[in-house]
Write a structure and sequence with these properties.
Layout: E1 4-8, E2 11-12, H1 19-34, E3 42-45, H2 47-56, H3 58-80, E4 93-99, E5 110-113, H4 119-127, H5 130-148, H6 161-173, H7 183-201, H8 209-223, H9 227-236, E6 244-250, E7 261-266, E8 278-283, H10 288-292, E9 298-299, H11 302-311, H12 316-322, H13 326-329, H14 331-348, E10 352-359, E11 362-370, H15 375-387, H16 393-398, H17 406-409, E12 412-413, H18 415-420, E13 423-426, E14 428-431, E15 434-440, E16 452-456, H19 464-469, E17 472-475, H20 483-491, E18 494-497, E19 502-505, E20 510-513, E21 516-519, E22 523-527, E23 532-535, E24 540-541, H21 547-559, E25 563-567, H22 571-579, E26 585-589, H23 597-608, H24 612-636, E27 641-645, H25 659-669, H26 673-683, H27 695-700, H28 702-721, E28 727-732, H29 738-759, E29 766-771, H30 774-778, H31 780-784, E30 789-792, H32 794-802, H33 813-818, H34 835-849, E31 854-857, H35 865-873, E32 878-881, H36 886-897
Parallel strand pairs: 15-16, 16-17, 17-18, 25-26, 25-32, 26-27, 27-28, 28-29, 29-30, 30-31, 31-32
Antiparallel strand pairs: 1-2, 1-3, 3-6, 4-5, 4-6, 7-8, 7-10, 8-9, 10-11, 12-24, 13-23, 14-18, 15-22, 19-20, 20-21, 22-23
Helix pairs in contact: 2-3, 4-5, 5-7, 6-7, 15-21, 21-36, 22-24, 23-24, 24-28, 25-26, 28-29, 35-36
The protein binds phosphoenolpyruvate (PEP) and magnesium ion.
Magnesium ion is lined by residues 772, 793, 795-796.
Length: 898
């Protein structure tokens, strides 16, 4: 097999279609070569080798690729006219990971690999800059020590051993900045660094470039299984089997002096989606300097620079003198970069995220990939590219990641509340949104408060998990392409970066702004859209969902086969969902209707009475409430089907459990407290989820079913009299045998006939069932003969198929996920190979006797994109989900059908 793919000088063995094999980064490096973009030569070791490495170990992997790697290194040497470890003309390379999708911060890069005591002389000679050579060398030893030799401190409070050595030397020398180190200082640092390596690892620092290279390659493969990478995969549902590729590439230097630079750019705005080329760069800097947030990066375009200055409150004079744009400092290279970014976007037909380096006046591209973006940017870019004629409608839809739409549906700051809010500081609008929460200073403490704001000088890949938990992120340092900014945009998390006025003391856990202290736990608010930081809590309001969002929704409806309904129990939820595009209600749970005010009393009276007459009397009190509720909901969903489910939970959930309330109830009903207590203990069950609930209640107490059916039919007739088109669909829960269904359907239908007669008018209505017990799916042909429709209750169906209690699974599911026994929580993502088979069987058996049988789903899975796709595949007519997931389900339904 071929395990190594080379690229360079306009040629490449790989291309963009080979991401699974050579990773996203490798595929794009190859592709850039093929379309004539200048890329330093190099090679990619395939993801298959990662699998060999993890399964068979280091030696097996090395022996599989040794020869190919040697040949590939020779090619780099050839193309760059250098030699590994040479004292005159050494070949230096970078080593980077590259999975098939980008995983930010999975493994830090190793730069300058190949340096040793001889090679450093070569670099000094070649560059004519001895200090530069030694600075590169000390950076290399440090990076290699941290990343490959595992010297990076475990705990966030511990300082990096190499940083400590540098601090000591600064103190000895009475200097403050890294840039003040002399060449001799740097030489001393290399010696001390190597001593530290020997002391900590018990082995001397490897001087042989080949040993260095194999060490770095192994470290990349190891990083695939590190905690951060595992967490990131879990967050995104990426399987461990993918593995990572390794990219080895000739070094180019952005830190060779004033004619060198390095930067990061986006072909469009990753926060808002605007079609504006933008990015940041630093003159005389190396790769990570721009994203690490240690120096304030400068804007690439003049326009961007001016915008930045305004936000950062920097005068035009200072901007021009200290933070000029690349457009101003290196106009020719800026022009070249402009052309390349255009070429790349037109080639990939998507927003690109680029890394480039200028070495002594020559521009090199180090990376291109489709850029991470916020939900808002995702929508705008897809719609803009469609309207610009770059992509077609289907492609535009495929650019929409349904779950990311969630970000757009959430509240923004209330405009009037903003007027009176106190601004504490201003940073960069790194990732839009509104966040209010309590300050925490460490990522692993983000869950300390329900709403936390992570406040950091800068963030690093270790902080990923905490960033995800926090409501928002505030950093004192770093630009629009800092780690915090990029990661936050990817997560759709509100982030303000580089708020220079914010001073943070991790030791005392205090943030100071303009002399005022803010402690851990204090409330602040962030506006990620403007970069403002506010004191305390700021009120929020609903976002505007017209414009591009509306266009995406319309496009979805054009391509979707299934319709989307909502699960709603109140007229208000129904309205919200209808505004989000719901076409009907797939599940109206009626139980909540029994809880408010006087209703719960009547309900309890019904439960406690031991005669049919007593129950009917109590139910008669409930009837008007129910009817009124249904009128509200039917009206809100006028013209669409509304599936009302009959009472489902066990009665025990409705009785009082506190002595005082029990006493009150006893007095009201004129019975003894003991009688009340004994009835309540009668209702107690060992396993209520498999107990007296669902249609079993209606079978024991037919008067409940009759009352609910009457309330539904009367409500619909009342509306009809007012000219409102109500379309009730009455649904029986927890059916396992056709006889259960028939029993309930008979009560419903005869009640409806009675009401029609009383009112002298009729309406159309349906009587159907939930399919949520495995036996119902297995006997769906029998049930379909009697039922007008099916709705899969995949919450209970999952519970009963897997035998996992919905209420107790939280105790062991995390272990199952951790150990890989389950890939996903089956209560969130439909278990397609198990529960899904029952769903498919239910549909097929049902339609085998009733070809046009209407079938939907109303379990939680109805709003989860991969489950929605499955539902489309098994020919459901609709999915039903909570109001806020309706837009997500609409797009998912369209994507499923494209
Ligand atoms: C279900 O079981 O999937 C369902 C929708 O009903 P509930 O969640 O109310 O049990
Ligand atoms: Mg259920």
């Amino acid at each position: 097999a071929k395990y190594v793919y080379t690229f360079g000088n306009g040629k490449a063995e790989g291309n963009v279609s080979m991401k699974n094999l050579i990773g996203g980064k490798g595929a794009n490096l190859a592709e850039m070569n093929l379309i004539g973009v200048p890329v330093p030569p190099g090679f990619t070791i395939t993801t298959e080798v990662c699998t060999i490495y993890t399964q068979q170990g280091h030696d097996a992997a090395v022996s599989a690729i040794k020869k190919e790697v040697e040949e590939a290194v020779a090619l780099i040497e050839d193309l760059t006219n250098t030699k590994f470890g040479d004292k005159d003309n050494p070949c230096l390379v970078s080593v980077r990971s590259g999975a098939r999708v980008s995983m930010p911060g999975m493994m830090d890069t190793v730069l300058n690999l190949g340096l040793n005591d001889l090679a450093v002389q070569g670099i000094a000679k070649k560059s004519g800059n001895e200090r530069f050579a030694w600075d590169s060398y000390r950076r290399f030893v440090q990076m290699y020590g941290d990343v490959v030799l595992g010297m990076k401190p475990e705990s966030k409070e511990d300082i990096d051993p190499f940083e400590a050595i540098m601090e000591d030397l600064k103190e000895e020398k009475g200097i403050e900045l890294d840039t003040q180190f002399t060449t001799e200082d740097l030489k001393l640092l290399v010696i001390r660094f190597k001593e530290a390596v020997l002391k900590v690892t018990g082995r001397s620092f490897p001087d042989d470039p080949w040993e260095q290279l194999w060490g770095a390659v192994s470290a990349v493969f190891d990083s695939w299984m590190n905690e951060r990478a595992i967490y990131y995969r879990k967050l995104n549902n990426f399987p461990a089997e993918w593995g990572t590729a390794v990219n080895v590439q000739a070094m180019v230097y952005g830190n060779m002096g004033e004619t060198s630079a390095t930067g990061v750019a986006f072909t469009r705005d990753a926060a808002t989606g605007e079609d504006i080329f933008n990015g940041e760069y630093l003159i005389n800097a190396q790769g990570e300097d721009v994203v690490a947030g240690t120096r304030t990066p400068q804007q690439i375009t003049l326009e961007g620079s001016k915008r930045w200055a305004e936000l950062a409150e920097v005068s035009e004079e200072v901007r021009k003198a200290e933070f000029p744009s690349l457009e101003e400092t290196m106009p020719r290279l800026y022009q070249e970069l402009m052309e390349i970014q255009e070429k790349l976007e037109n080639h990939y037909k998507d927003m690109q995220d680029l890394e480039f380096t200028i070495q002594d006046g020559k521009l090199w591209l180090l990376q291109t990939r489709s850029g991470k973006r916020t939900g808002a940017a995702m929508v705008k870019i897809a719609v803009d590219m469609l309207e610009q004629g770059m992509i077609d409608e289907k492609t535009a839809l495929m650019r929409i990641e349904p779950n990311k739409l969630d970000e757009l549906l959430h509240p923004v700051f209330d405009t009037t509340a903003l007027e009176s809010a106190k601004i504490l500081a201003k940073g960069l609008p790194a990732s839009p949104g509104a966040a209010t929460g309590q300050i925490v200073f460490f990522a692993d403490e983000a869950s300390k408060y329900e709403n936390s704001i992570l406040v950091r000088i800068e963030t690093s890949p270790e902080d990923l998990e905490g960033m995800n938990i926090a409501r928002g992120i505030l950093t004192a340092r770093g630009g629009m392409t800092s780690h915090a900014a990029v990661v936050a945009r990817g997560m759709g998390k509100c982030c303000v970066s580089g708020a220079g006025a914010v001073k943070i003391n991790y030791k005392t856990r205090v943030m100071t702004i303009d002399g005022k202290d803010y402690q851990e736990g204090d409330w602040i608010s962030l506006n990620g859209t403007t970069g403002q930081v506010f004191d305390g809590k700021v009120k929020t309001m609903n976002p505007d969902l017209g414009g591009d969002f509306g266009k995406v929704m319309n496009l979805s409806d054009k391509f979707a086969r299934m319709t989307v309904r909502t699960n709603a129990d109140t007229p208000n939820d129904a309205k919200v969902a209808r505004d989000f595009g719901a076409q009907g209600i797939g599940l109206c749970r009626t139980e909540h209707m029994f809880f408010e005010g006087a209703r719960i009393k009547a309900m309890r009276e019904m439960i406690l009475s031991s005669t049919v007459e007593g129950r009917e009397k109590a139910l008669a009190k409930l009837l008007p409430y129910q009817r009124e509720d249904f009128e509200g909901i039917f009206e809100a969903m006028e013209g669409y089907g509304v599936t009302v489910r009959l009472l489902d939970p066990p009665l025990h959930e409705f009785v009082p459990h506190q002595q005082a309330t029990q006493k009150e109830l006893a007095e009201e009903m004129g019975i003894s407290l003991d009688a009340v207590k004994s009835k309540i203990s009668d209702l107690e069950e060992f396993n209520p989820m498999l107990g007296h609930r669902g249609c079993r209640l209606g079978i024991t107490y037919p008067e409940i079913t009759a009352m609910q059916a009457r309330a539904i039919i009367e409500a619909a007739l009342n509306l009809k009299a007012k000219g409102v088109d109500a379309r009730p669909e009455i649904m029986v829960p927890l059916v396992g045998t056709v006889a259960e269904f028939k029993n309930q359907a008979d009560i419903i239908r005869s009640t409806a006939e009675k009401v029609f007669e009383e009112k002298g008018d009729r309406i159309d209505y349906l009587v159907g069932t939930m399919i949520e017990i495995p036996r119902a799916a297995l006997t769906a042909d029998h049930i379909a003969a009697e039922a007008d429709f099916f709705s899969f209750g995949t919450n209970d169906l999952t519970q009963m198929t897997l035998g996992y209690s919905r209420d107790d699974a939280g105790k062991f599911l995390p272990d199952y996920l951790e150990k890989g026994i389950l890939k996903q929580d089956p209560f969130q993502v439909l278990d397609q190979n198990g529960v899904g088979i029952l769903v498919q069987m239910g549909v097929e058996k049902g339609r085998s006797v009733k070809e046009k049988l209407k079938v939907g789903i109303c379990g939680e899975h109805g709003g989860e994109p991969s489950s929605v796709e499955f539902c489309d595949g098994v020919n459901l007519d609709y999915v039903s989900c909570s109001p806020y997931r309706v837009p997500i389900a609409r797009v998912a339904a369209a994507l499923a059908n494209i």
